[in-house]
Amino acid sequence: MEKLLKTRVDKAIENYKSGMNCSQSVVMAYADLFGVDEKTMFMVSEGFGAGMGMRSVCGAVTGMFMLLGLKNSSGNPEIITKAQTLKLVNEAAQKFKDENGTVMCAELKSNDNITGKPVNCMKCIEDACEIFEQYLSE
């Protein structure tokens, strides 16, 4: 699992360095696992970077949430998985908060977070990927 984790985290960081936003960077590192073509993943996640463009919920975190939906959802409105998916999203958000103090982009970028200094996007991307990896093995 460690090798898979490092490969996906590295891919997500490479995505960010190549110009993708934080949300795109996370989802694009896993697109192949869900049979969703890369162009669609890229387009769907584009509006979620920089905290949805308003420094709200971190783009890396929203990317992680999208991946949890892809992993957990039945994809069928007659097989209700919404409550279970939301539970996973809440757990993952708490794990991210435990590591960084918040899921809010503006707070992550300020000196008022648990580290006392701004958290950079690459750390958020790495943390979101590492948390998502925990759910992949379940």
Q: What does this molecule look like?
A:
The structure is a single chain. With about 140 residues, this protein is mainly α. It has one domain (about 1-135). About 65% of the residues lie in helices and about 0% in strands. The chain has 8 helices and no strands. It has helices at about 1-15, 20-30, 40-45, 50-55, 60-70, 80-100, 105-110, 120-135. Helix 1 (about 1-15) runs antiparallel to helix 2 (about 20-30), helix 2 (about 20-30) runs parallel beside helix 5 (about 60-70) and helix 5 (about 60-70) packs antiparallel against helix 6. It is globular. The two termini are about 10 Å apart.
Key traits:
globular, mainly alpha, 138 residues, 8 helices, single chain
The major β-sheet equals:
none
- The number of distinct helices, counting runs of at least 4 residues, comes to 8
**N-to-C series of helices and strands:** HHHHHHHH
Overall structural class, as computed from helix and strand content, comes to mainly alpha
Q: What proportion strand?
A: under 5%
Low-confidence stretches: none
Q: How many domains is the backbone divided into?
A: 1
Rough outline? globular
Radius of gyration: 14 Å
In short:
It is built from 8 helices and no strands. With 138 residues, the protein is an all-alpha fold.
Summarize the SSE layout with pairings:
Blueprint: H1 2-17, H2 22-28, H3 38-45, H4 49-55, H5 59-72, H6 82-100, H7 105-108, H8 121-136
Helix pairs in contact: 1-2, 1-8, 2-3, 2-5, 2-8, 5-6, 5-8, 6-8
